[in-house]
Specification:
With 680 residues, the protein is an alpha/beta fold. The chain contains 31 helices and 25 strands. This is Glycosyl transferase family 1 domain-containing protein.
Amino acid sequence: MPTNFERMKYILTKNPKLLIKAPGKIVRKVHQHIHPAASIQLKINKNKRQKTRQFNQYENPKRVLVYVIYENQPHLQAYKLGFLEALANLSDKVLIVLNSALPDGDVTKLEKYGQVVTRENTGYDTAAFRHGILLLKHELTNFDELLLVNDTNVGPMTDLSVVFRKMSAQKLDFWGISYGEKQVDFTGFNPYGIIPEHLQSYFLVIEKNMFQTPEFLQYWENLSDTDSRNKAIGKHETVFTKYFSDLGFIHGAVSGNNEDSAMYIHPLTMLKKFDVPLVKYTAFSNDTDDKFAWQGLARKTEVPELIAYIKHETDFPTEVLEEVINTIKDTPHPEHILIIDGVENQIPQCTRYRVINKAEQLRSFGYTVWTVNASDFQMGYAEYASQIIIYRTPYSEQFEELIKLARKYHKPVFYDIDDLVYDTIYTDQLDYVKTLSAEEKVAYDSGVKSYGKLMDLCDAFITSTTDLKNELLKLGKPVYLNQNLASKELISISEQATEVSKKDDQKVKIGYFSGSITHNENFNLIMPTILQILKEFPQTELHLVGHLTIPDEMKIYQKQLVSHDFLDWIDLPTLVAKMDINLAPLVDTVFNRAKSEIKWLEAALVGVPTIASDIGSFSEAIMNEQTGILAADELWYEKLKDLVDNKTKLIDLGNRAKNKVITDYQTMSHKDEFIEVING
């Protein structure tokens, strides 16, 4: 058994962060002065527990064990039976709660040790413990100690009775093997708003002065809905210790160290230096340094040395150890395609078309797809990804490490980009960028260059238009076309909007949906035409939607102008459906030629025809005079005048455009270059 000096030496040399706990004591002292009522109540509770503690039977206690099993293998794994046997030898009654069905032969093996009950696999082991406790509630007065243990423990590696004697000598109210450290509440369900230091719930021993109280039974009776891992952790595992500590009960752990998730990262150290009698099953999976890298950690694995130690320095059966190792190694992990969203819905149209719709397209071919915001990304999301798609995400060291690791494990990494925003040679052409101050320009350019830096590390590119593809090919890497497509939801919403929309026969409504602040220059291209049309056709009404400054020249036609705030995409089809004509002008620049045909697509879905500049993807998507109108710069007036004069033509163009989109631009089962490369 290690001395206190050896424990302190380990803390100072291996985990100096443990020293941070000292200031925590000061904070707790201050907290007591700030909340005197709570402090007084805690003292009352502690005094009460001190009196009841004298009735605990710490020597030769009568124990009842609730042992929870969830088995995902065809047969019960031997290590689970071995650990149960060791616990049963120390217990007077055993209740085994199965969260999964087992073959009859395995159930017979378990029945040698105690009563076996099978329940539906809901609520994780938390709900199974609750089930067992409530089954035993009328018998608990017959016992001195209650053991709550699940089947994630491989061991024992030492004599469990020695561990129990050591902990009994401390005269605690409840104890476990290890603590989980204090941290932010990643679950979103912890009632304390943080995750306090807590005994980890895989192994708990509770004395009778605690489990025979009304509060203990009420705790379990009131515990409900732990049907997700985060709920089980947030509502029970990280609550239990503080809840009963606040009631005056005292607790402890076998291990004096749980910094750096020591039970999972430093399992050999915990065996040799901290008296821990077991190894967590999942610790064996961290068998290479790369397994930690996939968790975003720079650590050295202890598993090879751990295995050797167990084989040569303990009595644990080698054949059982080998079964554990082989089961972990041979367990398949379903693959998925991972899409990382760098826009994070800050530009909703971008996230919708390049992330959500792409995921829908991939799923229609049977792929499992995970999507995650770049700011929420953790390396573990990518460990079992077959392909990784990074959409419009700036460079970071984390993503550089991801790409290096992905390449090592032959996972292709694609960078998805839908605008020429990765090199200032393109963005410097934008009128909007030319208006920026020197300081703003530096910040803007930094973002652009950051995209380019991460792109350069990726294996290939995905993009939305042919012109953008041609520009990307200049970077010397493969580029795969993946057009912007209409989702099932957008098609449904557009259909509903069409059904309720009523056209105004007395007006011709012309819509310009600007989208973003970079589009003023495009509206200026057709402003002379618009002014002339408004003057010649009093029945025309111009609807301006989104981020657009109305020019002074247009204010004389105020009665024919209608301004709308930027609309959420769900509401947009209802407004577009009220239009007769949709405008999509683009100044002929390399930046604009790379833009997609979304404006045409969304208007087409509600049967509204588009007149667009004859460049880029508009030229490819629109069949002139059939599914829309293409206009050279000098022909905008002529083309628009013709449409204003011809309502029959408007209806025909709108219907043809809608049929084209429904046929060729749906996400579902749409094959393109991107899908072909994913399919291999």
